[in-house]
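INSTRUCTION: Work out how this chain folds

Token vocabulary: learned, describes local backbone geometry

RECORD BEGINS BELOW THIS LINE
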Amino acid sequence: MARVLLKLFAWLFAFSAILAAQQSKKEDPWGPVKFLLGEWIGEGGGQPGESAGGFSFQPDLQGKILLRKSYAEYPATKDRAAYRHDDLTIVYRESGDEDLRAVYFDNEGHVIRYVLRAGDGGNSVQFLSEASPKGPRFRLTYVKTGDDKLSLKFEIALPGQPDAFSTYIEAKARRVSR
């Protein structure tokens, strides 16, 4: 009888540990990207041809998705008129999938699908698109550099060279609100 009770207690302990782990996952679904939550403004810039802008990451749909809204304003140069770039990214987790995913849309008609990978002990996250022989591959990396500071890098790899990324944009940002 004692052996049966011991097995029952061991099973109950294991079951409660599994439930606690699942509950903790439900309470913090955005763990790898939590450091990105809030409103951010770009730092630096101001030189001819450089943009000014900002972005936000906010939960939406009762916490089921994160919305990233971003803009960049480019001043006029001798070769082109001033313009504004706007984009929207939806970060989500498909049912039963551990990986966070994202889909990006912008005012230029681009659509990019990403898988997210956390790194550096929760202080960085990489958005990586799938390789395609017909189109470029994209990588967007955020790195926490302080309490309310981060750096970001957007890179592009040409078709047929899926791991030969070239930097397209590098920027720094500071959080202005959570």
Observations:
- Helices lie at 2-27.
